[in-house]
Predict the structure.
Amino acid sequence: MSARTRLRPDQRRQQLLDVAARNFAAQPYHDVSMADIAAEARVSRALLYRYYPTKRHLFAAVYKAAAERLLEASADPGHGSITAWVLAGLEAHFDFFETNARTVLEANRGEMAGDPVIEAIITDELAELRRSILDSMALTGHERSAASAALYGWLTFVRAVCVEWLAEESLTRTELRDMCLRTLVAALDLREAPGEQFARGR
């Protein structure tokens, strides 16, 4: 092993996450080994295990970091129409799924599917996305509650069809986007074109 570089704990944690993310993106989950990650990061296995006790914990940390980047990319810019923001958010989702294809499929259909830690990350991610959209729509009372329930179903749908899109490659990206938009219109019972309806929220 080459000479090790001293890093602050936060730098070391990020380094280990970066190395692990590359490995999980390049290989099936069961082929990734903690020993290989430690060797690539030029640390001892004991140090790696100090930060991440198991491969499951390490994968969950990688997935959480990716989910946080998605939330940042999907954040309300605070200007423009809600329609433009929703469209940009969908594109950010599609980019996220394409960039993290193997990791996403592992979390949703592979060995880590159904893992409580992964499920909690997904639940928190969906809740934050829903809150952001509801706040931007400026709804209150019953209207907000009804829209909240509809958005929960829609966001769950978006995740499901994106996973299907990755796994089966049966849709083009344009078809996927249009399907998601049509479903949002139906979920919120919009009577007008999405652009006209959402624009009122600005």
In short: The chain has ten helices and no strands. The chain has two domains: 9-53, 62-199. The first helix runs from residue 9 to 26.
